[in-house]
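From: lab user (bench 3)
To: helpdesk
Subject: output format question, protein + nicotinamide-adenine-dinucleotide

Hello, I'm new to running complex predictions and I'm not sure whether the block I got back is the full result or only part of it. Here's what I submitted:
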Amino acid sequence: MKVFVPKESVNRETRTALTPDSAKKLIKLGFSVFAEKGLGLLSSYKDEEYSQAGVQLTNRKDGFSLADLVLRVRCPEASEVSEMKSGTIHLSFLDPFGDQEVVKAFAKAGVDAISLEMLPRSTLAQKMDALSSQANLAGYYSVIAAASRLKKILPMMMTPAGTITPSRFFIIGVGVAGLQAIATAKRLGARVEAFDTRPVVEEQVRSLGAKFVKIDIGETGQTAQGYAKELTPEQIRKQQEGMAKVCAQSDVVITTAKLFGRKAPILVTKEMLAGMQHGSIVVDLAAESGGNVEGTKLNEEVLTDNGVTLLGLANLEGHVATHASQMYAANLANLLEHFFDKDTKQFNLPVNDEIVKSILITKGGQVVHEKFKHLN
Ligand code: NAD
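Helpdesk reply: Thanks, we reran it on our side. This is the complete output you should expect:
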């Protein structure tokens, strides 16, 4: 079977869905692997490295016409889907809740589209979990981005010129990204506090040496997949009240609170920002899904009247594109391996498999996923 990996077509995407190492793995399994020339330039993988790994470099048009499978990081614009031939299997992030036009376009073009966001959070699927591998790096980079703008150092320093106290970080939302943000800020010597609405998180925060901020907002809990439930407006108000004081004492606030498939809640209000110190930094990791912070602008740095910098960077993991691509490509190679029949040398997606049921959005010209069938 032939796999083709085109260059990313969405602006600002620096990652790639294939690395020379993941290509080697796919070729060993029995796939023929094709890549668009210049595929890895933005993530520092050279054409020669792909060639040495056994990848055949081609142009975009030929790649699409020969491909049985297409691998990408981002899904294409709806208008680009028709570049692919009917019967192709397309694997990428798809944002099926946000971009329903592209789902319809995939069905219309007869392309079988897989959405990596929909992967179940099971032990079996962990090795393919691209959402987690990328969130982990986004959490890391959020701390680096904040540290590089902060006019303070992070660790405590005792010097003959006096003692510097550690910077204070407050992490709101402790999923995969939040945990890595805590770990990274701790490694750099900051004093870290964190809050999440899922009570199970408290122990994890403590085990990283950070302090869990206790706010009583009543019944919360999590879904069977481990995601946070949506709070009532009254609960959000109580949470904001509880967090205002911690924000005011913090040099850096990092928000990672997302709600799967829905707009992120506003957790840091203009009033809370007004109470923060001059020179503080707020990094909003939910900026792409609506933002947790009032006033963040996607991909812009906003300076508030009282000197707080709001960073609403999208695709933080794209700033460490070499490693982000390494992990993403490995997730995809693991998925391909999982569903590859070594005897028949075919990639099969059994429609009754639990993982396939979760990730397969369109098949044979129809929207087949339970949650999106209404788009037919
Ligand atoms: P996410 O990106 O959807 O959300 C980030 C965090 O924000 C979550 O911890 C969530 O509880 C929190 N949040 C939501 N609303 C909030 C609010 N109002 N205030 C404060 N925090 C709020 O989450 P994620 O990183 O995908 O992780 C969700 C859970 O799934 C975690 O427990 C994670 O460990 C788990 N997980 C399990 C697996 C697996 O078992 N294979 C894989 C990945 C993640």
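A quick orientation on your result: DSSP finds eleven helices and 19 strands in the chain. Let us know if anything else is unclear.
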